[in-house]
Amino acid sequence: MPVFTEFSASSRELRVLPSFAPPLPRLSPPFANPSPSTTTTSSQPQQPQEDKYEVVIVGAGPAGLMLNLLLARYGLSDSSLLCVDAKSSTLRSGQADGLQPRTLEVLKSLGLADEILNDGCHMEEVAFWNPTGKKEGDVIERTSIVPDVSVPARFQHEVTIHQGRIERILETDLLRYSKRGVQRNTRLIDVKIDEESDAEFPIIAEIETEHPENGQKEKKIIRSKYLVGADGAHSNVRRCMGLSLEGESLDHIWGVVDLVVDTDFPDIRRRTAIHSPAGSVMVIPRERIATGDYLTRLYVQVPEIEIEAGDDHKAKDAAKARRAGVTLESIFQHAAEAFKPYYIRPKEDGAVDWWAAYQIGQRVSGQFTVKDSKGINRVFIAGDACHTHSPKAGQGMNVSMMDSYNLAWKLIYSIHGLTPGELASAKSDPVLDTYHLERHTIAQQLIDFDRAFSSMFSGKIGSEDGIGQALTHEQFLEVFSTGNGFTSGCGIEYPENITVEKFKDDAKRKNPITGIDYLSGILCPGRRLLNVRVKRFADGNRRDLHDDFLSTGRFRILVLTSSDLLNPTGISAKTLSTLSENIIPSFPHGTIEQVVVHPRLTISNSSNGSNGANGTNGTSKAHAYPYDTFTWRDLPAALKERSEMRFYSGIALDDIYSIYGVSESHGAIAVVRPDGYVGVVAALDDVVTVEGYLGGLLRRV
Amino acid sequence: MPVFTEFSASSRELRVLPSFAPPLPRLSPPFANPSPSTTTTSSQPQQPQEDKYEVVIVGAGPAGLMLNLLLARYGLSDSSLLCVDAKSSTLRSGQADGLQPRTLEVLKSLGLADEILNDGCHMEEVAFWNPTGKKEGDVIERTSIVPDVSVPARFQHEVTIHQGRIERILETDLLRYSKRGVQRNTRLIDVKIDEESDAEFPIIAEIETEHPENGQKEKKIIRSKYLVGADGAHSNVRRCMGLSLEGESLDHIWGVVDLVVDTDFPDIRRRTAIHSPAGSVMVIPRERIATGDYLTRLYVQVPEIEIEAGDDHKAKDAAKARRAGVTLESIFQHAAEAFKPYYIRPKEDGAVDWWAAYQIGQRVSGQFTVKDSKGINRVFIAGDACHTHSPKAGQGMNVSMMDSYNLAWKLIYSIHGLTPGELASAKSDPVLDTYHLERHTIAQQLIDFDRAFSSMFSGKIGSEDGIGQALTHEQFLEVFSTGNGFTSGCGIEYPENITVEKFKDDAKRKNPITGIDYLSGILCPGRRLLNVRVKRFADGNRRDLHDDFLSTGRFRILVLTSSDLLNPTGISAKTLSTLSENIIPSFPHGTIEQVVVHPRLTISNSSNGSNGANGTNGTSKAHAYPYDTFTWRDLPAALKERSEMRFYSGIALDDIYSIYGVSESHGAIAVVRPDGYVGVVAALDDVVTVEGYLGGLLRRV
User: Fold this and answer.
1) Residues 647-686 of B with CB under 8 A from A
2) How far is it, in rounded angstroms, from Cα B488 to Cα B402?
3) Could you give a GO molecular-function term held by this entry (chains A, B) (predicted)?
4) How far is CA B635 from the centre of its chain?
5) How far apart are the C-alpha atoms of A514 and A663, rounded to whole Å?
6) pTM recorded for the entire structure
7) Nearest CA-CA distance, residue A37 and chain B, Å
8) For A573-624, what is each residue's pLDDT tens digit?
């Protein structure tokens, strides 16, 4: 291609970079750090300086990093946002390893799922092994294999991968948006609310930074509007705020070990629950490592003392003694017994990566936020700081990151002045109030599920001796399967609140939804919008609908138009016109996107073929596409203007009307929150409900 | 999870990093740069220094970067490998924008496809527009829409994306393996072969580096074993070596423009071929850019002079004159005429990204390599240096990168002493000879296809005047569709050579393949192995078979076992044992991997249920998986030892026996080259053929 003349715009040079998420608009006054810190050097006196930030995050584990990243992407700069962590680098010895389907959906919506999906271990199936029931020399046999994820989800599996790798992925991306990144080697000493000296920045935190080279420590006072404690199970923020975890420690003791195994056990690469006469084991297959070997995680029950009801103190002492006696050798010994008639051992010397022993406990904080005297939420806790539980259902890292995912958009909407309240946090923001309500509900469900699951898992199945006899494999499987909606993260449902407007039977408005099988995708306020496969009108691309619901902090109006879409005076056309011309422009520019789907459409002769450009006659076989029967000229003008690349056939691939429980003849509208959860569902002509819902959350312009 | 005791191996800390491709083993002596260059500073005298490298690459466009990256991944360090480029950074104003399905498969096998797939524009459909045929005020109408890719491929679409972004992705990955990366601001002045002064490093190149800050130039002499010219259509390497492009320039003149359009044309987001009474236009939809807009590329024909046969000189002059007169305004004017009755214009001021005018020419070099006096290939050319053609079929960047992909493994096998010849390149290496043979064949096909396609595209269709009248839409569609195997990259077939052993009817060995529809996946030496979906035995994972054929430089033996796999004395078991114990170990460790697939298997009573671990009885409905009927104990021990995580059901998802043309009762073996092309196919018991094929390419150990 010998070019002889060429012109190139300078903007074109930027096109080679990875895509950046667009920040949210800011209606509140821009934040300027009123007292920027001078560069800290070790020669300065130890007198604390005072910096100001809009948000301070304490802790950079999965919860803290996720929050930091989201706020940075949404628009908070380094001068406005500070995240500190006591450690000197991203975690390298974390214990969590499981990512649930819903977490994968969220990571995908952030553009962060690829490495995890490529290199992590996909757990697609679960095997159950139980005693054969033969009395002497009793061993185990496979009872069943079932799918690991039994609910519809974009990714029909879990992924296991080193927690440190998740953190490294989050931090690497953070550094695209933040020059500073996480401020390391910095621990929180104290935090308190002091409204008198500065009502706008009422949080006072004292932090201490240790110089990475000379070890000198420097203290500093920082003020902020908000502070989030993502500082783990032993949260100092929680302690300083006088919150506490409530619940009990049960005395089941487990050993956990990550290693490369040598075994003839058939299901070593499946997630496997073994209930053997010699105790329980859970097998978690892990990712491939640089040697080419595959890791395995084993959870091994340490037998044998059961809880003695009414004598908690004695039971706890006994458990403590047993726990102290756990060694790597004893873990292997118990595992070897449980795997019989199969053998299992480390593949070779050095094959053990990490091991630990732990005691199961389920505890949750009664409050996830602390308000100031005006009722404004000022301090938040997230992740392990709010809830601790056993690791075997693979929930910890997931629920923690989802805490932050829930909090981030509410916080930025408030800070950026996008919510209807007064600017500058002069009074309580009801959107922020929903954080505790929503996430505490989920945490409590997590604790309840984990307690039931752990107890069952620590019991025995089908053997003729021991107290576990009453628990059949079928009962265990039932708990496992019904829990899957919850454990997968795909079935959680937030309760009614200002951001979740449930349909009530006594409401005057029509309910456009048929069906109640919400796990399968029926639209339900409070649940996440299920991903479906759709075919785009403009270019015929087959796409995942979730790819139009990226985690960029925007609300989306999903319009499922009805079969009258081609009628210029029909309800679909009217609704699209009202949304586009009246409703969306009445809220801050760039906070609402519109996604439109069409059902089966029949075109009348009068509107078809007006100029021969609508496609060929019916004789050609290449034209089985529904869009061959109509073009943009047959559609409402407002549709192309606002949603040219977000307009899909809802029936060409998945039958999404059926999946979402919407009739093709009547259609429906759903407003989806920035975190992908359905906020409200309304009849197609009920734009009043849509406007009312958005008006409660967004400032009018 | 309150841990009280914890142990962590130090190796675990490495697990947080992205995965690296494992280098290939090296049997030849390690290379140590005999005269390492001192750091160049501008104050040094201009006397040329002399450095030595094993490979020097000239040019860091898509071809050069791909080769550099592959060789670095395969194991060449910065002291052994140098890539120079005259430009100061990765390309920011390149013209190529299309990635074909086969290129996407290769990028995926390198772990480099994700950003491209996420952010690029997927072209899934092609629309054809032709004159309505009404005489006065004739305009265009849509004739048909067809899939853009009509052959089976892992990705059923092309992707369009800025060439600079491809280069940035390649270079970013290169910097994970090479500290230096590309040496920029460095141009090649001269290159020659001089065997007398140093027979092992006979290539002498003179390069000149311009200091990026002070502009001072420094010359240097570098010696190398091999030199690759990936320096574009005006290749200096090609010129110095006395090679030349052969072929003719046709006089079709086209304008090309990248912009954000404002149009009511219905197929602006589809790849579209418009044959209008006013000339031809091709629409190439492009990626979304940071503004949220979508780019469009338009190729616009500049009318109207046709070639006058027999008077080339006159035609060329006329073309030149027309070409010089092309302006952005004239391009838009021609486009506006061709799009009637629709309007098209830049969306706003500044919406034009880049534009150029070009003249179609198809030319190819007669030789892609230059040998020394001993017959050893020493200098190679790749990419545009070997072939130039029109851009409209979206081939350039693809064929160029595939040149390098073909060359890289052959070069590293030779340099690392993995081929059977003498070490240290003392004599000709027949594996290296295949580069010219294979890639020249493809280049010639490219040129031939492009000539036909371009001529047809520049003609007219269906109008009643002009010479294009003879060309019907059906004829054009036919060329387009039959060309799809070639243009997609999925249908190319390398000719017989030492790395491609075709089956001959007169051969004594049995042909295990039924069928000849190679485009649909029937195994064929010289064609790439088609990706299929398989279900892994060990963990039930649904996988793409291509994910076991990553571009890490390894050969793979794909064993399609027969239905006797569970018979310990059957052919399948015998073959697996021979491959595992005799054949694979006789070649360098880590150069051959084995992938195994099984067909429908029925288990005899005697081998089933030996210890109750083979699954449950038939009453449970959760057990429809074939692997429930047998476990590792029923399979040859060699299988698990060598291919535990590369053993699949070939019938649970895709019916791969049928797709590959292999009978389930007889099975087959295919050896797949490091670049994913089938090298040889043999009957399941014909391990002699497999060993013979590998023995011709790999050194015995």
Assistant:
1) none
2) 12
3) FAD binding
4) 37
5) 8
6) 0.92
7) 33
8) 999 999 999 999 999 999 999 999 999 997 654 444 333 333 333 333 333 3
